[in-house]
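Hello forum,

I keep getting stuck at the same step: I have a sequence, I want structure tokens, and every attempt I make locally crashes halfway through. Rather than fight my setup again tonight, could one of you with a working pipeline run this one for me? It's a single chain of 257 residues.
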Amino acid sequence: MRASFLDCPIDILTMDETVELGRQAMRTRKRLQHVALNVAKFVNMRSDAVLAADVASSDIVGIDGMGIVWAARALGLPVTSRVAGVDLLCELLKVCAEDGFRPYFLGATPAVLDQAVRRVRDKHPALVFAGWTDGYFDDREEREIVRKIRSSGADCLFIGMPTPRKERFLAAHRDELGVPYIMGVGGAFDILSGVVRRAPVLIQQLGFEWLYRIYQEPGRMWWRYARTNTLFAAMLAQAMIMRSSVQGALPPSRVGG
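Reply #2:
Ran it on my machine without issues. Output:
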């Protein structure tokens, strides 16, 4: 179910529904691009036209962050749960191992990427990678990277590059890649490699995973979350006030004759 959340498209889907859409895309080789929406990405869309266009043109805009879940519910949307990007990645890798699909990893440092690939292979011995390439390439090498991905015959491409670099890469090359399922995974390769620890499940459920990230990487993360969370709260408050004003201006419904 697609809905509009503060003028941004979102797809209200469960994890199982999202995984099945990915499986069908790989099976039919019909292109499907998935973007995981969290508070930081939502806020940055307001000042980054390329990022906003990438989200708007994606086939699935998944609800990645608990902040989006709570805000959508506050605005009356029937959102029951989030589909966290790293969890979806793990589920799709399991599908690849079971069904013989071949993933391609793009992004992270060479050391982190190699470690992530090793750990995925240890967990899924049957899985065969189409390939992997770290994210440290320049504009001169970009054409060769695209050729490499296309010639690999990959069934799915997971891109672990930061915003907006990932969005600019896809805007320029998505039609040339020849990969049916494409998904941006942010810093998921850091988690798969073990370099970054995932927050405990209870902290995830309470919606405080961002605080755990600040605890692990205070120098890099505190300003990002302070800025985006504050701006998001202001946007939501404005939308709630406007919604309340509109509802208050509506005439009361007539009951009976």
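The mean pLDDT is 89. If your local run keeps crashing, start a new thread with the error log.
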